[in-house]
Amino acid sequence: MFRNAAGRLADAAPGWLVETVRIRPAPPRWWPMLRTALAVVTPLLVGLALGRIALGLLPAMGAMGTALADQGGSYRARVVRMGATALGGAVGFLLGAVARGTGWWAVLVTVAVAVLSALVSTTGAAGSSAGLQLLVMTVLGTGVPLGPPVAGALLFLLGAGWALALALADWPLHPRAPEEAAVIAAYRALGGLVAERDPGTVAAFDTALRNAYDTVFGARSTSAGTDPWRTRAVALLNQASLVRNALISLDLEGRDPPEGTAAAVEGIAASLAGGGPPAREAPTPRKGPDSPATRALNSALDGAVELLSGGDPPADGPPYERRGRGERLRQVWERVWSGHLTRVYTVRLALCMGVASAVSELNLVERSYWTTLTVALVLKPDFGSVFARAVQRALGTLAGTVLGTVVLVAVPYGPALLVPVAVFAGLLPYGMQRNWGLMSAFQAPLVLLLVDLLTHGGPRLAEIRLVDTLAGCLIVLLLGYLPWPASWEAPVGPRFADAVSATADYLRHAFDPGHTGRAALRHRVYDALADLRTVFQRAVTEPAVISRRITTWMPAMTALERVADATAATVARTEHGAPPPSDGAVGAAVASLEEVARDVRAGTPPGRPELAEDESLERVNSAVRGLSDTVSGHHAC
Q: Which fold has domain 489-636?
């Protein structure tokens, strides 16, 4: 019945609204795989047509690196990331080709580029991809004779441009597909939250909401003039956040969501996907009298429905503070040059790259640039656990070399090799989504086939690749991992303290209706919690002796999420009729959170929090006490 009502309203909706919110079919899931295969094979086919198949190797490498940098998001974000990757690879090849044949000077160049790569990688997603490609192509430029420096860099950019063109080929048909899909994903995750509010579904919704904000704002930042659709999309995401807080508040009251809530959220998502406004009768509570949390939930849902029905977005500011170019550059500069972890990682990478380059210069292993490449890929800081990557890289390469050997034995040298090249290139995006070992299993035979096209090395290349890769993994484990105890675990403690500080900042202004940045502070809390969960997941992939110690942070993380949720839920209730807490009670809770953050940074257990009794802040105070007790227990163990 609900869907029929929605369909009738869709028929009566203004044409501009249907056109604006209707999401066109997204490209199928196999399209990234086909796109990567086309990007890599096309330059090789051109080289084959010209009678010089090796001429297509550099464009194929540029296309492969750039295509793998496409991790989705808004078109702007994709262009920036892929463009930065292409530029980094071209500069890296130029530096490596110039340094090729200069003896130990080439080792110094590689170490210097490793330092530069580490610093560039701290600037964000685009910098991370660019830094990796800069280092990889420097190693290939010094180790493989691929042509003159300038001409080779231009060929690399040519292949990268082809991959970028393929990635943007569906833009005329799907100009807003990433943004629309992100908003729909947020509301579908909200539907899961209506059904069940366990920590997993809460985290899933918070991640979907954060991704949606990033995608919409990334596209909006380059739009000239007003953009009604994106303004409405941000307003819809704001309403989804309000629904989430109201649901948590209902849980704290011990109530179920009102009748019809799930259907309302489902209808909003269906309307976004299908183009018509949803129909919804005002929900009624399943039990008990009306409450501030119920009114907050109804108000948030009504606001979302009104937006889809053509109503004006609320005049509230955006959930993230907009920063000027100067502020963004200043923050990038601080990330590059400050931070103990950045300095330690830079030293580790430079040391391991220097040793691997020295092994190459001393000719201790054949085709030793594979050893140096392995070091660069395994020691990348934002790919996860170094130990796990080293093991997966070794096992994946072992499986990949077996596949490569079979292909090299079964397929004669020449154009026929382009078929398995296309297959393995197409499988790379799938492998990246699964795990590092599977990606290595597809990457190893692909690299073998590309090298064989250049050198006619035959099946023996597989044996050489395996030995060189194992040597690189050994260098990373012996010099870049074991001697650095701080690297055995991700920085969960500092990230936890940052999240506590962000929660304290939000609580300080949460009940001040005149503060214009409350939404920004709230979303900063959930951003910090998302970063904390990411760091935690990386840490638990370490060996058991380390991961067991890391998992002791889980109760404290859960307690901190409870503080953030209780704060957001209490705000939702006060905005819909519940009495606000006193300034003294809020100040005492803020001071307790700040003390917890200071004690975690200092490595000492926090004391018992001194909180003011206030019925309106009872749930927040209870959550703060639980956090302090949990953190004290964590330090005790």
A: Four Helix Bundle (Hemerythrin (Met), subunit A) (1.20.120)
Taking 50 as the threshold, does the pLDDT of residue 415 lie above it? yes
Cα–Cα distances in angstroms (integers) from residue 473 to residues 122, 199, 546, in the given order: 23, 37, 20
The pLDDT value given to residue 316:
45
Q: What is the CA radius of gyration of the chain?
A: 27
The first and second tokens of residue 408, run together, are: 């090299």
Determine the residue type at 615: E
- Render pLDDT for 1-42 as a digit per residue (tens, 0 to 9): 223 333 322 333 333 222 333 334 445 567 778 888 898 899
Q: Which two tokens stand for residue 553?
A: 């942070």
Rounded CA-CA distance 598/600 in Å is 6
Distance of CA 239 to the CA centre of its chain: 24
Which among 512, 450, 515 has a CA at the least distance from the CA of 144? 450
Least confident of 158-172, 323-337, 386-400, 449-463: 323-337
Q: Are 218 and 76 in contact (CB under 8 A)?
A: yes
Helices and strands (DSSP H and E) totals, the chain: 26, 0
pLDDT digits (tens, 9 = 90+) for 553-606: 777 887 888 888 888 888 888 887 788 888 888 899 999 999 999 888 888 877
**What is the Cα–Cα distance from 229 to 220, expressed in whole angstroms?**
10
Do 524 and 505 form a contact (C-beta atoms < 8 A)? yes
Q: Which segments of 309-368 does DSSP mark as H helices, in order?
A: 325-337, 340-361
Query: Which residues, 6+ apart, have CB-to-CB distance to 41 below 8 Å?
Result: 60, 418, 421, 422, 425
For the stretch 237-249, what's the b/e string if a residue is b when 16 or more beta carbons lie within 10 angstroms of its beta carbon? bbbbbbbbbbbbb
Q: Rounded to whole angstroms, how far apart are CA atoms 463 and 556?
A: 48
Residue 89 sits at φ, ψ, to 5 deg, of -65, -40
Cβ-based neighbour number of residue 614 at 10 Å: 18
Per-residue buried b or exposed e for 182-193, using 16+ beta carbons within 10 Å of the residue's own CB? bbbbbbbbbbbb
| Cα–Cα distance, 354 to 106 (Å, whole number) | 10
CA dist 86 and 83 (Å) reads 5
Find all residues with CB under 8 Å of 516, minimum gap 6, and list them. 317
Domain boundaries, the chain: 2-25+174-308, 31-171+339-487, 489-636
CA 20-22-27 angle, to 5 degrees, is 120
Q: What rounded mean pLDDT belongs to the chain? A: 76
Structure tokens belonging to residue 485: 């105890």
CB atoms within 10 A of CB 30: 11
d(CA 569, CA 231): 25
CA atoms within 13 A on the CB side of 637: 14
